[in-house]
Design goal:
The protein is α/β, with parallel strands linked by helices. The protein is about 35% helix and about 25% strand. The strands form two sheets. Strands 6-7-8-3-9-10 form a six-stranded mixed beta sheet, with helices on both faces. α3 packs across α4. The chain is globular.
Length: about 280
């Protein structure tokens, strides 16, 4: 059997902040407030799987993506990407992955082509190969050719997000980490991105880990879905399997949204902002 694309074993991540107080504090009261982002998390993602992660804000979704992408290190536990330990073999892992985030950063004065060219050079991709691929991906995602050379700062939030998605696909990663990639996109653009995710899996033998708040997107794209809450996996199955966890209401089968609300207590967003999300 081939190695799993991603393995997490008892992964724990804690963020510490200095406690705030308006009054005087005794030495015993001084210290740091702890936020447990992930608690003894176990996950295995198979090669070529599109694996979804749902959860309220503050559940640990983005922390999970940042750990796998080596932007953060776990406090305990082990993370392996195609058998490579993210701490002991960081550079081997970085060659296998790419990440698309909802808060993607760009050189705003540069055009989409210039930003993608920079990414290609960063990953050691020959420009002779990158030029044609950049245009092909941007067109496939619905950008018009005349926008390819415009400064990014003149583009809408949705168009910028499409360039972020193009940048993630450009290097044909073995493991693609998508952190709410379609946030800010119109329904047509969402469908373009979702179709392209499937194409990348089929044509490049890629594995995809996707975090999203869009239940339809998760159901449409993902082979399996984990529901994360307060740093723990509280359910893991196919979309159809998850729906068996909730009874019918007035004779109607439950939706994935019904499952999410039932299992997380209806919390789509926490009042407290998680340190890492």
């Amino acid at each position: 059997m081939s190695l799993p694309a991603l393995e997490l074993e008892r992964v724990r991540k804690i963020f510490r902040r200095k406690s705030r107080s308006l009054g005087k504090r005794t030495p015993a009261q001084n210290g740091k407030k702890e936020t447990i982002a992930l608690e003894s998390l176990d996950l295995t993602v198979a090669r070529r799987e599109i694996f979804g992660v749902l959860g309220p804000n503050g559940s640990g979704k983005s922390t999970l993506i940042r750990l796998v992408s080596t932007l953060l290190l776990p406090d305990s536990g082990t993370i392996r990407v195609f058998g490579h330990d993210i701490e002991k073999e960081e550079f081997a892992v970085k060659r296998l992955i790419n990440r698309v985030s909802v808060d993607a950063a760009f050189f705003k004065k540069f055009s989409p082509l210039e930003n993608l060219a920079y990414a290609a050079r960063l990953y050691g991709m020959p420009m002779s190969e990158a030029r044609g691929k950049m245009r092909e991906i941007l067109l496939r995602l619905g950008l018009k050719e005349e926008t390819f050379t415009e400064p990014m700062e003149r583009m809408s939030r949705g168009m910028q997000q499409k360039v972020a998605v193009a940048r993630g696909f450009l290097t044909s990663p073995s493991l693609l980490l998508l952190d709410e990639p379609t946030t800010g996109l119109d329904p047509y653009s969402k469908r373009d991105v979702q179709a392209f995710v499937r194409e990348v899996r089929e044509s490049h033998d890629a594995t995809v880990v996707l975090t999203t708040h869009d239940m339809d997107e998760a159901e449409r794209l993902c082979d399996r879905i984990a529901i994360l809450d307060r740093g723990k996996v509280i359910a893991l199955d196919t979309a159809d399997g998850l729906k068996t966890l909730v009874p019918k209401t007035n004779g109607h089968d439950p939706t994935l949204e019904d499952v999410f609300i039932a299992l997380t207590g209806g919390r789509m967003e926490d009042k407290e902002l998680e340190v890492a999300e």
